[in-house]
Design a protein that fits this description.
It is a single chain. By secondary structure, the chain is an alpha+beta fold. The protein contains two helices and three strands, in the order αβββα. A three-stranded antiparallel beta sheet has the order 1-2-3, with no helix packed on it.
């Protein structure tokens, strides 16, 4: 029971500094984003992002042959 109270009061204490999330994860942006390599956005191709050194970085998978053929029809 005492541990429950201590855990509750721990919510209001100082928080640890934010750490970088260096794992890339899928992202579906509403507005165009700037890619880390400076390339232009491809209409098909998954966009990935990560939080690194205090800012978001974006990259995009290259379009595969299947993606290109699917876009033609």
């Amino acid at each position: 029971m005492t541990q429950d109270y201590l855990a509750f009061f721990g919510l209001f204490g100082p928080r640890a500094a934010a750490t970088d999330v260096t794992v890339w994860h899928k992202h579906n942006p509403i507005l165009p984003v700037r890619l880390t390599d400076g390339a232009s956005l491809n209409p098909s191709g998954q966009i990935w992002r990560r939080f690194h050194l205090g800012e978001w970085e974006y990259k995009q998978d290259p379009e595969t042959l299947d993606d290109y053929e699917a876009r033609q029809f």
